[in-house]
Write a structure and sequence with these properties.
The protein is an alpha+beta fold. It has helices at 4-14, 19-26, 30-37, 45-54, 59-68; strands at 90-95, 105-111, 126-133, 135-140, 143-148, 152-156, 161-165, 171-178. The chain has five helices and eight strands.
Amino acid sequence: MPAIGQGLRELRRRRQLSTRQLAIRSGISHSTISLIERDRLSPSVDTLGAILEAMGGTMSGFFSQLAATTPHSPFYRAADLPEAGRPTSISYRIVGINHPNRAILMLHESYAPGADTGDAISHAAQEAGVITAGSVEVTVGDVREVLNVGDGYYFDSSRPHRFRNVGSEPAQIVSAITPPTY
């Protein structure tokens, strides 16, 4: 599958935008866009969303287009899972991005020590996951719980939620969201 940066560069060129024009439209610096397009910087979900929105695109549309260049297979090697996070702090690796009519978003999430998703977010979906390494504090609404290896969660994503690695070691989660958010 083509890298995210390569896909963004191609989309920007099809929209006949310079990186400076895209920077002005998106509010993301020219240098950041350049680094992302050269795959030297992995964008956060918010940054990627802002760039795509500035070009009239969506996350789901972008990843669907990216996946369309790869033939469908029921198997996905670790090296082929596209990154949708910030790999230095929070990594979201997507499983099955090119599966036709995908009805769930399957993620392998990794959180560096102290990594935090930030302000609580909400969206129209349901999500579930299992902690496979480390300790993660999960907040859903007004309820906060520290989950350890083998513990899981399932909640309606319309409730504000947040994830934070509270341990001194990296934490990992295998999660699923339906319907897919990207």
